Fold this protein.
Amino acid sequence: MRVHFKTSYEQDIRFFEDRWTLFLYASLVILAFVLPYIIDDFYLGEMTNVLIWAVAGLGLMLLTGHTGQASLGHAAFLAMGCYAYHILVKYGVTFIIAFPLAGIITGVVGMFIAIPALRLRGIYLAIATMAMSILVDDIIVLTAPWSGGVSGMFSDPLNLYWIQIDRWGTPVAFYYVVLVVVILVTLGYANILRSPTGRSFVAVRDSEVSAQAMGVDIAKTKMLSFALSCGITGLAGALMGMFSGVFNNETFSVVISVQLLMMIVIGGLGSIHGAFFGAIVIGFLPQFLSISKGWVGDVIGGSAVAIPGLEFGVFGMILIAFILFEPAGIYGRWFKIRTWLELFPFYRKGMFKRQKSFLKTERLQ
Amino acid sequence: MDFFQLLVSGIANGCVYGLIALGFVMIYKATEAVNFAQGDFMMLGAFVMIGFGNSGYWGLPFGVAIVLTLVVMGALGYLIDRLLLRRVAGESQTAIIILTIALGFVMRFIAGIIWGHSPQSLENPLAGQELRLAGITLGMEDVAVILVTVALTVGLFFFFGRTKLGLAMQAASQNQLAAYYMGIPVKRVQGFIWALSGVVAGIAGILFATKGSVDPTTGLIGIKAFAAAVIGGFGSLPGALLGGLVIGIIEPFASRYMPAGYSQIAPYALLLIVLVFRPSGLFSQLRNKKV
């Protein structure tokens, strides 16, 4: 078991607890970089998809997991980032400028949307963001001259000066582009979390009233959280557009919003790891289902029947199981297992037991 | 007369939204949880009714089918509380929101397996009958929807405000622990409210199925019912009905008088406007939260 005796604040906010952790993450990054030489193009495509979802998950995680504002409308920001990037590219802006710009545009729009949303909390915020997500479909149709509306838009290969990268032609290069974005976003995210800003996010999540008492400006903090969250989501949206190659008004439906929220819950709310774990579940569930469907078909002897809506049915059941048995998600479970191993044989049963809480109304008469 | 025709069809649609919104509001009033699966609950109610009543399935007499449907839906509501919601009591609202959304997915999936994905409608004695009144033609289904909804809202309003059980429910939502101390069987009360909301969803489903066809994605109109509940102010039963009527009436008029493309935006735009300018709805119960 490793014991950290912290002697200074510097030590407390270090990126990595010790050399061993640094070594683990470094080897993970190296593994990610050599991955194209290990797996074939199909699985590399799937992996790229997972990484893109992880970026989107990080975006929502900042808002929901760390600031405690449930959003059912993040597909709207995915769409915004995607369209912003592709429209910029259409007007001849190069990738290096257009990509960050798409994130910034989405972030600024998100900040303005946050102003009315500041007055809402809990379910009201969830419903308002959901309504926004539904409206995006119609807004894209109405702005057809720029967005292509129902007929959609095609994603041009991205131009990186000396090389043309597109998802089908050069999957390996596209994977590296996504990987670099993922690493940068993750580093930035981790950096925010150890700064006063990140701590004020968490303070707002845990108790708005206490945060206010400690001198945190709630409105400013929430707006900043919205802006950063939407910005990251916008980047993910741009990548998603490049990945799918073609997209229209129905690509970023409200279902995607819901899926995104569910993803970070399955992964584990309030942790960077959670976004990645959740993305792995989301990314590989369809593959897993189609493989197991074939397997079930073999066992029963009939043909593999296609059951419409199976994916969402299974997804819903997994989610219910998580909320009931492991509300902290995959990362929470992993954390418990790790603690058990580290403390062996001194792990006690009640270690992570949460205090029973009782419901109190938000409506006061 | 065109105007009245639109108005009546809007009111009838609005009543269905209002009924679903009633389901949300009831559960919110009594348990402070929001059931995002209420629309799918209604869809399930409609399918259960079709399963009992249509000649293609069991073909039971209409009245018997209604009673059986309400019993099944009530039992389902109770089971959902007993097996799922009771375990997450006291968790954050995000957890409950996600739990009920996931429940909606599962319901849609199950309904798709049992009754298939093609639209079906209910065989009912009211079909095709009309009521002519001062030059306006009303479908009997619309009249039935309006009457049942108004009766149900009035009944529930008095139930919550006047009866001992109704007051116990409100107390349980405001402070669970204090309600326990005052001798209210909080768990049983919450089980009862979920059963009741199952019954309301069943009624909404039956009425919806008499008016039009149902398929597993029908539950998505629950989103419009959300708009209704928010406009009325979550936590107010007459508000829910009123909100439903507002949404229901706006829809046909928007599609008639507004340019294409803008009309389907109208309900959601209204929802956002209400949330921005009067975040707690028209009949507000929300006050500032204390520590």
Remarks:
- The mean pLDDT of chain A is 86.
- Chain A has 15 helices and four strands.
